[in-house]
Amino acid sequence: MEKQWFLTSAGFLAVVLIVGSFWYTTTKVSAPNTQTSSSTTTTSATVPIASLTMTPPPSISPTPQPVVSKFPINPSDSITSWSFKSVYTGNDTLIAKTNADMEHLQSLIGKGKYDDYDLYVGIGNDYNYLGDGASAYQNYNHAVSIHPDKGLAYMNLGQLMDQLGAYYTAADAYAKAVAVEPISQYKNAQLDYMNWRFPGGILLPTVK
User: The pTM is what?
Assistant: First the structure.
């Protein structure tokens, strides 16, 4: 009787040990997986915004402006004064109209309604009418910087230089106009000027 009870108790104890061992093993193995999963989820959800790499927007380069170079003054010339008596000198009405026209042309520059080349040529002409050779020269050079392959600004430079007494420079400007735009109008203007100022290839003295 005691032996039978001992075997029964031993069997019951063995079952308890097996179940206990299985529970301990399951708990020991599965707990780290659960904790790791929870830790991984928390970490991915709390990435600081400052650590994100932001791509800056592309920079916009300004539109390049044309380089304004001065039409060279011939070494044989010497300009003593950039001012001269114009056809409008003493006529206040024409001077006022010219100033108003010049202001209007200046307001149109860069607007795209008209070619800036033509606007600068027009402003140069207005300054020429007023006897302001330096400003006329500057605006003709602006026009040339926009369209160096057009002859009109060079033609007007030739006429301006003649008024300033820079006859060789004027001849150079007429020649440049024909070189970049060899149309009959410019060729005839160059020929007329050379026959007037340089008959036989020699500059005639001017009569003051």
Answer: 0.68
